[in-house]
């Protein structure tokens, strides 16, 4: 079956003549636009690597659209940063994210996404991700909380999250938050054309492990842009030289979930969303949306 698809894809590739208009809609001739890139990708594919299909590679215009969405996403997170403090409920964060996103012309992407009931995820301490805001959960001194904001604007999605330390936080929690941020920064350095997603995963996993932490296996990042979650699934536990080839035009998230203890997790069976660490130890996560460019990468949300 795989061979059949491969053959079909080669056939489709060959069908575009050198002087035909490029498939990307740039209006340029194929030979002066995507032809060299397609040939290079095809070469990796023949070597057995996973390569991105054309439909996940974003055009300049699409990346501009994602950037506009990202501006709202960042502004909302900046506003959360201003208001977050001991005594605030996670419901108040939800209201701010919802109202500000809508005021700026966007839609909070989590709201009603696969039945999710709120506009943002607020994940505190041993909650790994997908914590549901509630008026009963009041932030208190010593909490660490991830606020994960996802924005839809004029058809384009952006996604990022930050950690917040509420009041005075223990040294060990502070370190977890800091190291998790470093994981994203180190991973980002690996984002450039012709590297593999596994190259990024390896440095992230190595840094977490070197600090005695573990990385969640089952939940990872994702392609993003025209949909909230697109191909590929982005793991942070895979090995260098494996997983999808990075190609200009790919847009995906870097969002490792780093656990202080075991990587094991479970999902709350009552709400069906909240993900906890199995051992009850804290977990941290930072998330950015990044585009692979010809030269390297561009961070769209941070
Ligand atoms: N924002 C999460 C991510 O980074 C997804 C949350 S799905 C939701 O992919 F429904 F819980 F919002
Ligand atoms: Co995400």
Q: Give the overall shape.
A: globular
Main sheet makeup: 4 strands, antiparallel
Q: Give the strand content.
A: 15-25%
Helical coverage, percent range: 25-40%
Give the helix tally: 6
Q: Give the termini distance in whole angstroms.
A: 41 Å
Number of strands: 15
Report the mean per-residue pLDDT as an integer. Answer: 95
The unreliable regions are none
Question: What gyration radius follows from the Cα positions, in whole Å?
Answer: 20 Å
Helix and strand pattern: HHHHEEEEEHHEEEEEEEEEE
What structural class should be given to the helix and strand makeup? Answer: alpha+beta
What hetero molecules are in the model? 2-amino-4-trifluoromethylsulfanyl-butyric acid, cobalt (II) ion
List keywords for this structure.
binds cobalt (II) ion; 6 helices; alpha+beta; four-stranded antiparallel beta sheet; binds 2-amino-4-trifluoromethylsulfanyl-butyric acid; 302 residues
Structure description:
The protein is an alpha+beta fold and 302 residues long. The protein has helices spanning 2-15, 35-46, 60-83, 90-103, 171-189, 197-210; strands at 107-108, 121-124, 127-129, 144-153, 156-165, 214-215, 221-223, 230-234, 251-254, 257-259, 265-267, 275-277, 283-285, 288-292, 297-299. The strands form 5 sheets. Strands 1, 2, 4 and 5 form a 4-stranded antiparallel sheet that branches. Strands 3-12-11 form a 3-stranded antiparallel sheet, with no helix packed on it. The N and C termini lie far apart (41 Å). The mean pLDDT is 95. The site of 2-amino-4-trifluoromethylsulfanyl-butyric acid has 12 residues, from β4. Cobalt (II) ion (CO) binds next to β7.
